Amino acid sequence: MxxxxxxxxxxxxxxxxxxxxxxSEVNVxxxxxxxxxxxxxxxxxxxxxxxxxIEAATAIPGLNFYRRETPTESCACVVEPCVALVVQGAKxxxxxxxxxxxxxxxxxxxxxxxxxxxxxxxxSPERPYLGLALRLDLRVMSELLLHARAGLARDDxxxxxxxxxxxxxxxxxxxxxxxxxxxDEPASIPVLAPMIQREIYWRVLTSEQGARLRQIVSxxxxxxxxxxxIEWLKTHYxxxxxxxxxxxxxxxxxxxxxxxxxxxxxxxxxQFQKWLRLTAARHSMLAEDLDAATAAYRVGYESASxxxxxxxxxxxxxxxxxxxxxxxQAGPPPAVMRRPSTSPAPSQP
Length: 349
Prior knowledge:
Blueprint: H1 34-49, E1 55-57, E2 63-68, E3 75-79, E4 82-88, E5 90-95, E6 98-102, E7 106-110, E8 114-122, E9 129-135, H2 138-148, E10 163-167, H3 170-181, H4 189-205, H5 210-217, H6 222-236, H7 243-249, H8 254-265, H9 269-288, H10 292-298, H11 304-315, H12 319-329
Antiparallel strand pairs: 1-2, 2-9, 3-8, 4-7, 4-9, 5-6, 5-8, 7-10
């Protein structure tokens, strides 16, 4: 979820099995602060595995660590469904005109692939920003919800944003602490990690903000249908888009589809497709050294000049200058969308 990284997201960083010394860069506050006391073991674990990097994948699938030693400018990103914890420092995620601040006392949940902007607010070399994100498996969460539906209050909430902040709890900290401890027991990861991940999913589903997530993973709900539409867009963003056809795939009227799509993503379907195209083109120019025109045509633009105008409007600089700046800073950012599919689109999203 962090910004650019120099290929670190593809690396697998496995625990060494050694004891975890108290790093001088993890400023552990007094034990009288319960949140700080609970987050301190996580901060030490993340600090140890991100030394000299801004992002590190782990041996646990879907778990990534992030680090920044200075506050950052706001930068565009595509956030996949995940639960994110800041274990030291503070961060802000923005979706449309809505802003979500989180720190060790608050976690962020994203229930859809959402175009957003992120900014690290509090960080220094002595006390770096340290965070982690666990990708959500929405199929597993749907299964949990199906088995436990009778024990949950009925959700009568209207469709809202697909991003929300909730209060961290001792139970959530405990589950993440046990998950990260497995990095020092690589042989136990295949057996124990899935069970702890299911526990984390459950803690989030039953949290004060769980209704937001349940509206996405509940099969047949409006949010669930929009989520499938977004999955289709991720693999077909280079193709011409007929919103009427996408609404029909989602088994919704055009007006209803527009309403729920915008409520969840803060964008219209056309704006969402444009964001996916521009983000994919940016990644291609960085990772494959493509020129702007080639990248534009690859993602579905017919006019290179229109591409350049919309690119500059989104990223704040023309393609060539933006790419040069990113290379000087940190290298290509991770992309979460897949390449466009060449096979026929399925009848249902």
